[in-house]
């Protein structure tokens, strides 16, 4: 944050939705969208090993895991 309360570009604002604190407003909005669509999601619940590196997606859709 600057001295005047204006966020620097790229600064995320933690936001609560449905009892979960998301790292940013964008993530909370995605959660709202998924909820409105009736899709179950898990937030940062799974990680995957891809090319020797761990990757943790923000959202995992368990009903779409085939």
- The neighbouring-strand order within the major sheet is 1-2
Unreliable stretches, pLDDT < 50, 5 or more residues? none
Number of strands: 6
- The number of helical runs is 1
Secondary-structure element order, as H and E?
A: EEHEEEE
Shape: flat
Detailed description of the structure:
The protein has 66 residues and is an alpha+beta fold. Helix content is 18%, strand content 24%. It contains one helix and six strands. It has one helix at 25-36; strands spanning 15-17, 20-22, 42-43, 48-50, 53-55, 59-60. The protein has a two-stranded antiparallel sheet. Strands 3-6 form a two-stranded antiparallel sheet. The protein starts with 14 loop residues before the first strand and ends in a 6-residue tail after the last strand.
Give a quick summary of the entry.
The protein has 66 residues and is an alpha+beta fold.
Keywords, please?
flat, alpha+beta, 66 residues, 18% helix
SSE map:
Layout: E1 15-17, E2 20-22, H1 25-36, E3 42-43, E4 48-50, E5 53-55, E6 59-60
């Amino acid at each position: 944050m600057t001295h005047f309360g204006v966020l620097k570009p790229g600064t995320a604002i933690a936001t609560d939705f449905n009892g979960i604190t998301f790292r940013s407003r964008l993530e909370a909005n995605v959660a709202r969208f998924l909820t409105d669509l009736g899709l179950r999601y898990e937030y940062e619940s799974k990680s995957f090993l891809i090319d020797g590196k761990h990757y943790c997606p923000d959202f995992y859709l368990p009903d779409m895991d085939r």
